[in-house]
Amino acid sequence: MQSQSNDEDNNAHYDFDLFVIGAGSGGVRAARFSAKFGAKVGICELPFHPISSEVIGGVGGTCVIRGCVPKKILVYGASFSGELQDARNYGWELNENIDFNWKKLLQKKTDEILRLNNIYKRLLSNAGVKLYEGEGKIVSPNEVQVTQLDGTKLSYSAKHILIATGSRAQRPDIRGQELAITSDEALSLEELPKRAVILGGGYIAVEFASIWRGMGATVDLFFRRELPLRGFDDEMRAVAARNLEGRGVNMHPRTNLTELVKTDGGIKVRTDHGEELMADVVLFATGRSPNTKRLNLDAVGVNVDKTGAIKVDDYSQTSVPSIWAIGDVTNRMNLTPVALMEGTCFAKSLFGGQPTKPDYKDIPCAVFSIPPLSVVGLSEEQAIEQSNGDVLVFTSSFNPMRNTISQRQEKSVMKLVVDAETDRVLGASMCGPDAPEIMQGIAVALKCGATKAQFDSTVSR
């Protein structure tokens, strides 16, 4: 972590000690905690809208407005479909036709993100952080320009500038790509699709496949590899794929889309295997790009990588000593809790007198498919690659007790990866009901260096 030692600079008068561009989870956390340490803080964010663009966004950012929160609301909604099917074998006499009101759920989702948007604004206000609505751009190492909705430009000087602008969905270069939507639009569709095509094999693709299938749509999922969820444990990827198929998702491995054509009957989708099918909605879930294009970074000398992600050191400082960056815009580990951690470490380091590096080891993450997949630590493949000695793998596959009555053919799988020499658990994963909550507890054990023997000696019920 570099420090500014220039006396003239230290004695200069600034409008703010810190100005934050981007009021998502990371930016809000950094602003609040910096203010708590006594800093004078300003922050800017684009005006609120559920679907983002270069000129609209909202306090709360991707997670709150068009990410984790609305997605999980839809996952919960879709989960009831399977619950109702299972309930019949538990003695519940349900009518054959149970209606689902998409617009009602959509309104509930919108109400919730508006509530959270206001809570985030209140958190900033209560912390004494000054909020500006508009697009932020860096003019110099110590100056930010905020362009308001009416085009008015306001300039503020700051001893330190923090970039926390996140990322946005990207579209592949496919003919007719303007006919497709991204996850932004998918969370705010006016009508529930009857036929959905999804391109992508990551967690967003898998989650929307579960959501729309759970709500009764026909879903076709196309992805380039043999299995979805690249980067996760291969065995667990296979389990997740089987579960998607078992729930009725049509899987198309090693297949890409080549063209989308608008017709009277919907969108005609062509694949590189010569297939054609019709869809009401085509979702591109093909990754996200850092939001850096309009920040004027080149002009002030902030280094970025080939994807546009801002390069930072261990303390989130950029190549310009007065400019810092956290969250998805740095493309380190793109998870909301990680952005929160980075924001906390930044505030402690710069204003709290406690130099603190973010710790990326043993961070649990989850795919909110139905049922969900969750992991912490190393996958089997990563452990074998990184270990100097032998790696032991323990897997348990079982039929959850509730499925013995409901007769749902869907096994839960749990897995531990262990260092043979030390007996230390290197990684854990689970695919099945409540996996994210279970992995959160196991993450604490891994942080504490738990061994397989300690896992074995724990009495469970």
CATH class of the largest domain: Alpha Beta
The name CATH uses for the topology of the largest domain is FAD/NAD(P)-binding domain
What is the CATH superfamily of the largest domain? FAD/NAD(P)-binding domain
Q: Strand content of the residues, in percent?
A: 15-25%
Number of helices, counting only DSSP H or I runs of 4 residues or more: 14
Number of domains: 3
**What gross morphology would you assign?**
globular
Helix-strand makeup class: alpha/beta
- CATH architecture field of the largest domain: 3-Layer(bba) Sandwich
Helical proportion, percent range: 25-40%
Number of strands: 21
- Describe the biggest sheet? 7 strands, mixed
Disulfide bonds: 63-68
Family: Belongs to the class-I pyridine nucleotide-disulfide oxidoreductase family.
Pfam families: Pyr_redox_2, Pyr_redox_dim
Protein name: Glutathione reductase
